[in-house]
Amino acid sequence: WRPCPELSPALRLPCRCNVVPFAATGQLGAVAMDCDRVVFHGDAPQLPYGAPIVAYTQRHSGQQVLPAQTFGQLKLTIEELDLSYNLIRRIPEKAFDGLKDSLNELRLANNLLGDNLNPIFSTAELHVLKNLRLLDLSGNKIKLIEEGLLKGCMDLKEFYIDRNSLTSVPTNSLNGPSALRHLSLRQNQIGSLLADSFNAQRQLEIIDLRHNVIRSIDSLAFKGLQKIREIKLAGNRISHLNSDVFEKLQSLQKLDLSENFFGQFPTVALAAVPGLKHLNLSSNMLQQLDYTHMQVVRSLESLDISRNTITTITPGTFREMGALKYLDLSLNSLRTIEDDALEGLDSLQTLIIKDNNILLVPGSALGRLPQLTSLQLDYNRVAALSAEILGSLQAGDITTLSLSRNVIRELPPGSFQMFSSLHTLDLSGNSLAVINADTFAGLESTLMALKLSQNRLTGLGGAPWVLPELRSLDLSGNTLTELPSTIFEELENVQSLNLSGNHLTPLTGALFKPLDRLQVIDLSGCNIRQISGDLLAGLQDLKHIYLNDNQLQELQDGSFVNLWNISSIDLSNNRIGSIRSGAFVNVMKLQKLDLHGNQLSAFKGEYFNTGTGIEELDISDNQLSYLFPSSFRIHPRLREIRAANNKFSFFPAELISTLQYLEHIDLSHNQLKTIEELDFARLPRLRVLLVANNQLDMVSEMAFHNSTQLQILDLAHNNLDRIGERTFEGLVRLEQLNLEGNRLSELSDGVFERTKLQMLENINLAHNRFEYAPLNALQRQFFFVSSVDLSHNKIKELPGDDSIMVNIKRIDLSFNPLSSKAVHNVLNEPKTVRELSLAGTGIENLELLETPFLQFLNLSHNKLKNVKPEVFQRVTLLETLDLSSNQLESLEDLSMAWPQLQVLQSLDVSNNSFEIVSQSNFGKLEMLRSLRLSHLPQCTRIEKNAFKQLPNLVSLEAYDLPLLGYLDLQGILELLPGLEVLDIEVKDSSIGSEQIQPLKHPRLKSLGIRGDRLKSISSGTLAGLKSNDLSVQLRNTSLNALPPALLFPVPRSSHLSLNVEGSKITVLVPQFLNALEDRRASLQLQGLASNPIVCDCNARALRRWLPSSGMPDVTCASPAYLLNRKLIEVGDDELTCDARRMTSSTSRPTASVPHLLKTSSQLVTRSSSTTEEPLIIWSLEPTQPPSLKKMKTKAPLMKAQSPIISNDDT
After folding, report:
1. Given pLDDT bands bounded at 50, 70 and 90, which one contains residue 582?
2. Contact 314, 293 (CB under 8 A)
3. How far apart are alpha carbons 918 and 215 in whole angstroms?
4. Beta strands 560-561 and 584-585, pairing class
5. DSSP states of 46-105 as a string?
6. Which has the closest alpha carbon to 724: 787, 773, 676?
7. Going from the N-terminus, what domains does the chain have, and what CATH number goes with each?
8. What pLDDT is stored for residue 589 in this prediction?
């Protein structure tokens, strides 16, 4: 791809072009054009008549009109047309007449074709496209499809209608094509598959129904599909299948049933498809797997049953699975694999048993797999590895062996000598301290990739590693301090070397010399203080260099010399204060240079001895106050300049005036005072200009003149009090104009005249000084303005009859002192608004809403005491309703409105005054996915069945309920198996897995447990959580300790975030710290600093752990003589459990209590009245004297504890 004018002078457009073959002849000579994010005067580009353009894409450019008609008139033979991610609402008449013979791919995804009151999407314009093979209408808010839509599209093979609002398969709308092959209906709202759902298209080969809400499938749903090869049903709500649902689908080969709710293997349904080759049942609730399940799917070649709760595989399970080549058993609860558990898998090539808490490599079971080539045992607890242990494997055929994230401490010489075909070995994330050349004896002629990252390596042995076939070596995240000078001598084929995150002493010049085929080198985070010119000399194949996050202070002459193929250099986050002239010599192919986060006060062209091909330059977060005319001129291909967070007070036009390819400039967070005439003018490709958070008080009227592609302009948080009438003259489309946080009180009526600016789409005027909405100025953009943010101004009045208000699609007027007449004019006069925010505008009551298109309504922070059901009579498309922070006294009236709001998906009624949440309050809200009920100071009762009628609920928040005596947590959760996010207050003093039952909530990925009554949590509470990204919050509880084994049941492969903010934790015990250390690469602990840490002898292990934790601010709450000291700065001798020392230092041992109480009550963020506060405060554990005894008894145990480095969980 290259700029179009370089391909042909006739294509004088700021697009990219490529030469492609003609479909008919296969000969080169046709042109594909990529005009993504490009805008033109008029609806279509000026292209030469009859040009051989066969593919045209123009996404993300605000197109409201299809340019297809223009293309047809120009006799362009366009075969592929992609106008996804635009604002097209309708397809005009005769749109495709000129392209009817040539067009075979039409992509109109992510437009607005279904965004209107008529629920049926209809057009006759596709009928002429007799050669169309692919049609994509995804993401268009389509609810129903007209029956004859595809009439005439005889040749259509692929039809995508993903991410719409379809509630059933549009069976009758699929008539027309003679042989549709691929139908995709992903991410709709389809709840069931009825009989004959695909009757119109019996030639279908692939049906994709992933991520709908399908619960039931009729026995005849797939009837008549003689050629079906693949059915994808992942991410639905299916718990069982009828026996005949797949009957007569003899050609079915692939079936995806993952992420559903199967508690048992669907044996009976699968018995009908004996020819099935690929089955995915991962992420279900299967508890067992045995021979009776497998005998109905004997012809399987791949089986994925990962992320279930299978505890054992009985011998003989796979005895008739001779065809199986791929088996994934990851994230179950296997612990061990019996010797004959895998008997019969004579063709198995890939076996994945990640994250099963397996303690030993199951050698004898694996030895019965004669064809095994890939074995993955990552995230288990294997501690030992040797030639003896691996001896029973049929090692000669294995090409990939992965044992990352186990607890292997040592590898004897020759551990892998029998693996004569091994090309990939992954041992990252173990506890290896030393590796020698002889560790890999026997792998000399085969090993191509070796991963040893995140171990505890301190040395690599003295002898060179003899691995001449090695292409990739990863040693990152170890504790290497020096590398033997000959270590790489026999690694001449290595192309990628990662040494990041070690503490390397100065590197010798000859170290990398043998690696003359090296393409990528990562030396980031290695404490490197300087690099000499000879370090990388001679590495002529080098493409990418990472030296970020080191201690470099200067780049000397010839730091990067003769790197003829270099593409990117990352020097960010060092301390570079100076760069010598000629630091970069002969780096002509360099495309990306990153210098952000240094201490540069200058950036000159003289650093380079010749012009470069740099396209992306990042010099942000430095000390730059000015630049030289030569700074950028030597880089004529610059596309992006990032220079935020510097000290620029001016940025003269001559710096960038010659950069014809420049698209993106970021100068935010500087000290610019003005933007002068022509500063950013005549830049034909400039699309994004960010100058927020400066000190601008003036923008010249001609500043952007003729920069026709400028579409995103951010001027937020400056001191602008006026915008000149001609400021935007010559611009085609402003997609985003951000003027938030300035001093504007008015906009001149002509500032957005169509003769000056063709299209203004989204404007942010929040946090200014407007007393009247600048509607006259916006009126000029009646057809284009879609979003206006006027929140946090001083607007009181709004006219009722203003036509611009009628047409804006997103309006935010929150936190203005609106009069009741103004509110009436917004809500009760007809409008086409889709999203409306009126938070904090003093609304006391609501009348009938005249906003039939409304999908999002925010009325939070008002004074509503009651909402009558008839208010919502005409807003039947509403999807999100926020009524939080009002004064609602009851949900009874509101609940009468639910039958009208059939598509409501998100509801927030937090921070209101109602007392009861009853069974009838949330009826008829079948589509509801998110419900918030937090901060309810008057609520005394939540009925167990209150959420029973919310079958699709995904997220529930209910906390900060001070008057609520009891909450039947277990009863509530049993009714909501599909929950993904739960944040709830517990009223019991202890909690365990029986209340939350994660095993019955397989999709739970965020779990919040709150409540000051909660004093203990059982070790098994989190057992059953399986999500890849997990968030666990134990906030504002009275927990004073966390059980050592709390994290043990959580999958080790999960990225876990643990938040303990506002609880009463006094110390983290060494065993718990060991568990944190075990997950050091995938765990984030937050909020510990807000707990009352007791700094006695029990805190020593915590103090040793803190430096590497990223939490230096943890302070002592007691004893008194250490109050508010940072624990990290307290010495071991001061951390004592000697009662005399603790009391002699202060006459009042309880002096620390007020602080402790103050801290805890501050963090209990609730909106209850102050009279409740003492209850909260005195629910603390007894203070000092009683706990001293406890501490004292623990002291000897602590002394015996070794520093937390080892990993003793095997």
Report:
1. confident
2. no
3. 26
4. parallel
5. ---TT--EEEEE--SS---S-THHHHHHTT---SEEE--SS------TTTTGGGTTT--E
6. 676
7. 648-784 (3.80.10.10), 796-900 (3.80.10.10), 915-1059 (3.80.10.10), 1078-1210 (no CATH)
8. 94
DSSP state of 1126: B
The torsion of the CA quartet 59, 62, 67, 68, rounded to 10 degrees, works out to 50
**Residue 391, CB half-sphere, CA atoms under 13 Å: how many?**
5
394 and 370 Cβ atoms separated by less than 8 Å = yes
**Count of residues in the chain:** 1210
Counting residues of the chain whose pLDDT is more than 70, the rounded percentage is 94
Instruction: Assess contact for 768 and 746: CB atoms under 8 A.
Output: no
Distance CA 928, CA 880 (A): 9
How do residues 896-906 score in pLDDT, each as one tens digit?
Answer: 999 999 999 99
Contact predicate 1029/1007, CB 8 Å: no
Phi, psi of 70 (to 5 degrees): -60, -40
Alpha-carbon distance of 118 to 109, in angstroms, equals 19
| Contact between residue 972 and residue 997 where contact means Cβ atoms under 8 Å apart | no
pLDDT score at 884:
98
> Mean pLDDT for the chain?
91
Determine if the peptide bond prior to 1119 is cis (ω within 30°): yes
- How would residue 1143 be classed by pLDDT, with cut points 50, 70 and 90? low
CB 559 within 8 A of CB 584: yes
First to last CA, the chain: 54
| Exposed / middle / buried, residue 559 (Cβ in 10 Å: 0-12, 13-18, 19+) | buried
> Residue 719: which region, alpha, beta or left (left: phi > 0; alpha: psi -120 to 50)?
alpha
CB 936 within 8 A of CB 910: yes
CB 741 within 8 A of CB 765: no
Q: What is the pLDDT of residues 450-468, one digit of tens each?
A: 999 999 999 998 889 999 9
Q: What is the mean pLDDT of residues 923-930?
A: 94
Give the helix/strand (H/E) hosting 812: strand 810-812
Q: Tell me the longest C-alpha to C-alpha distance in the chain.
A: 96
Closest C-alpha among 899, 822, 894 to residue 865:
894
527/547 Cα distance (integer angstroms): 10
pLDDT of residue 393: 87
Q: Could you write out the DSSP letters of every residue in 969-1009?
A: HHHHHHT-TT-SEEEEE--SSEE-HHHH-GGG-TT--EEEE
463 vs 479: CA distance, rounded Å? 19
**Nearest CA among 588, 509, 580, 594 for reference residue 545:** 594
335/604 Cα distance (integer angstroms): 61
Helix (H, G, I), strand (E, B) or coil at 210: coil
Nearest to 720 by CA among 702, 681, 746: 746
Check: CB of residue 705 under 8 Å from CB of residue 34. no
Instruction: State how far the Cα of 1026 lies from the Cα of 1004, in Å rounded to an integer.
Output: 8
Q: Tokens for 259? A: 């992420």
Residue 1171 pLDDT greater than 60, yes or no: no
Closest CA to 341 of 376, 308, 317, 306: 317
Residue 1194, pLDDT score: 33
At 1109, the pLDDT band (50, 70, 90 cuts) reads confident
Residues 686-700 pLDDT 10s: 999 999 999 999 999
Confidence of residue 44 (pLDDT cuts 50, 70, 90): confident
Cα gap 67→277, rounded to integer Å: 45
CA 37 to chain centroid:
23
- H or E stretch at 779: helix 775-779
